[in-house]
Each structure stands twice: as structure tokens, then as C-alpha cells.
Amino acid sequence: MTTRSLFLLPGDGIGPEAMAEVTKLIDHMNAAENAGFVTDTGLVGGSAFDAHGEAISEADMEKAMAADAVLFGAVGGPKWDGVPYDKRPEAGLLRLRKDMQLFANLRPAICYPALADASSLKRDVIEGLDILIVRELTGGVYFGEPKEIVDLGNGQKRGIDTQVYDTFEIERISGVAFELARTRAGKVCSMEKRNVMKSGVLWNEVVTATHAAHYADVELTHMLADAGGMQLVRWPKQFDVIVTDNLFGDMLSDVAAMLTGSLGMLPSASLGAPDAATGKRKALYEPVHGSAPDIAGQGLANPIAMIASFAMCLRYSFAMTDEAARLESAIAKVLDDGLRTADIMGEGARKVSTAEMGDAILAAYA
Ligand code: ATP
Ligand code: MG
């Protein structure tokens, strides 16, 4: 039987509550479908700091590196506001991203029919929306050198950040976008600012060349990132996969996310390069939301973002396409049935707890 290793890092705040609902699904899939998931659980963030003084231990880092996929909850909270900077909860996630070399951040924006009226956009603009933003996560202006504040000596200072992209970085991120497009509607739109940025000129050239060499079956278009932001709000359904750099992707993925509503609904995936020997990509799946300390421990957390992140894990790490689609349908069905956690509560709906939402999704899946 195939075994599939999952390393669970529930983290802090509502992280563990949301992860518990995924664990129910894993147990069911093992028992009823012979899925062969082997799980191990570690500590990250504030809970790891409390246990051993680091945001993630070396032992847990090794487990994360060895697993087929990592499921990550959320980290942080006011309890750890005073801890040293390099040991703060977020340092655990940054360490994972860096060591696992997770260069591709995937953020889907899906409109669940039952929630279409919760969007600030008109129903016809948003209904049926299913787009995927692929953001480069390890390069660009967030990491380029020089990066400093220089004292100019005349009462003036100069803040410097440098946008740097090399050919290989653009090739690998666009490769991910093209491959994902093949499993979807077959369209990629690449966004940069080639009219004012040299890195944008190179981005455009390399995406175009990668497409011509390996992915000519996919439809490729280009848009300036500012126009792209406008089009994303005007008529988002024109897009399938959007591929863009770290900075533009940071902003555009937040815009795309809010097209569809609550923070409690949004999953994400971060992928690394394929392993030379096995061809498997390192991968980490996490909800977009944080640890929400204000509602932690009260059964109020919406587990859908975490569960939808697990659906992405099924699809991208294990090619369990049918199971992923069934799980996403189960989420949609439970919403259609009118079940809501507090954050997405609306008129005439039935308010449920974190565990009740998880149980209902499991029942709809099973
Ligand atoms: P971080 O810095 O970790 O990203 P943040 O300050 O952006 O955190 P979150 O923790 O993501 O904030 O949440 C902001 C607020 O949104 C929370 O205080 C909570 O009220 C609400 N929220 C976030 N996630 C959920 C969820 N899964 N279910 C219900 N409410 C949520
Ligand atoms: Mg945040």
C-alpha cells in the first residue's frame, strides 16, 4: 500500500482547532479509503518557543524536510509579543519557507455560490469565480541586495530596496504556473511592469520563452500589473492562472482573496522545486488567516480555510484529484445547506461551531 507522510504543525491560537477538523478527515480517509496517510505532529511558533525556546526545533525542521507535505495551522499571539526577534512565532514559518525553498505561493480565489452575496462585488461578476494566483515567494524586491537605509549626511537618508530576478527564478515560477494551468482552464496571464522595470522586461521575455519551449498548449497573455489589478476587480472571471512576482503577487493575491469574502475561507499552498531523485516537490499548505487570538479556544474559528488547504494538499502533493474535488464539493454543499461559522454568518443561516462545521464537511464528503 502507498504511504503518504504528512507532518502537522498546528501552531498557536485557532491553528490547533482548525487542524483538528483536518485530522478527522485524514482518519476517515485512512479508515474508509485506504489512503495510507502517516501523520506526525510538531510544534511551531509560540507553542514551540514555550516548549524549547525556539520558533521551531531542529528535530521538527528535519521532519518537515522529510515529509511528503507539511500542513501548517497559524502562529503568533500577544503572549509572545516580548520574545526576541529571531525567536518570534513568525520566525518558524520563515525558517520553513527558507529551508524548504518554497518559491511558489499558490492562492486560489473561489466563489462559493452560497456566499456570492457576501462579496462587495455584484453577483454576476463573482459567481462561479475560480482563479489561482501564483506568486514568486523567495526573490524580488523583498530579498534583493543592496537593502539598506543610507545616511546621506545632509539631514537626508536614502531607503534602498533592490528588485532582482534571475532567469532560473522566472523559469521555475512560470513552469509551475503553466503546469497548474494544464490541470485547470489552460490559461496563464503573466503580470509585471516591463514599461518601467528592467526586471519586468526580463520577466516578460523568460515567461514567453518558457512558454514557447515547453508549454505552447497553454494560452499565455501578458498584462501590466497595475492594469491587472484593475481587471481583477472589474471582471475577475477573465483569468484562470495569474503568475507574478513577489511584490505584485503580495498585493494582487490579497485583492483576489477579498473578492470572495472572509479570511476564514482562504487556503494557500507553497511549493518548492522537485527533488532530483524522486521528482516530488516539497510543499507546505496553510490557511491565509492568522492565529486569531481574539477567538481562540471558543469554538468560533472557521475551519474551512484549513480544510480547503488540505484539499490543495491532496491535489498538488498526492495527485488525489477526485478526493480533492469531492472535499471541495463537500464544503460547497455544507454552505448550500446554510451552515455558517460566526465569521460568515448571514440572515437565515444556521450558526455552527468549529467542530460542527468540520463534522458536517466530513459527513458530506464521506
Ligand atoms: P497574522 O498577522 O497572523 O496574519 P492577522 O492580524 O492578520 O494575523 P488573523 O489572525 O488572520 O489576523 O485574523 C484577523 C481577524 O479575523 C481575527 O481576529 C478573527 O476575528 C478573524 N478571523 C481570522 N481567521 C478566522 C477564522 N478562521 N475563523 C473566524 N474568524 C477568523
Ligand atoms: Mg495577516
TrEMBL record:
Its cofactor is Mn(2+); Mg(2+). The gene is leuB. GO terms for biological process: L-leucine biosynthetic process. Mg(2+) binds at D226, D250, D254. Homodimer. NAD(+) binds at residues 77-90, 290-302. InterPro entries: IsoCit/isopropylmalate_DH_CS (IPR019818), IsoPropMal-DH-like_dom (IPR024084), Isopropylmalate_DH (IPR004429). This is 3-isopropylmalate dehydrogenase. One of its GO terms (cellular component) is cytosol. Its main location: cytoplasm. It catalyses: (2R,3S)-3-isopropylmalate + NAD(+) = 4-methyl-2-oxopentanoate + CO2 + NADH. It comes from the Bacteria. It is found in: Cytoplasm. Residues 5-361 form the Isopropylmalate dehydrogenase-like domain. Substrate binds at R97, R107, R135, D226. The lineage of its organism: Bacteria, Pseudomonadati, Pseudomonadota, Alphaproteobacteria, Hyphomicrobiales. One of its GO terms (molecular function) is 3-isopropylmalate dehydrogenase activity. It holds the Pfam family Iso_dh. Its EC number is 1.1.1.85. Pathway: Amino-acid biosynthesis; L-leucine biosynthesis; L-leucine from 3-methyl-2-oxobutanoate: step 3/4. Binds 1 Mg(2+) or Mn(2+) ion per subunit. The record marks Y142, K193 as: Important for catalysis. Belongs to the isocitrate and isopropylmalate dehydrogenases family. LeuB type 1 subfamily. Catalyzes the oxidation of 3-carboxy-2-hydroxy-4-methylpentanoate (3-isopropylmalate) to 3-carboxy-4-methyl-2-oxopentanoate. The product decarboxylates to 4-methyl-2 oxopentanoate.
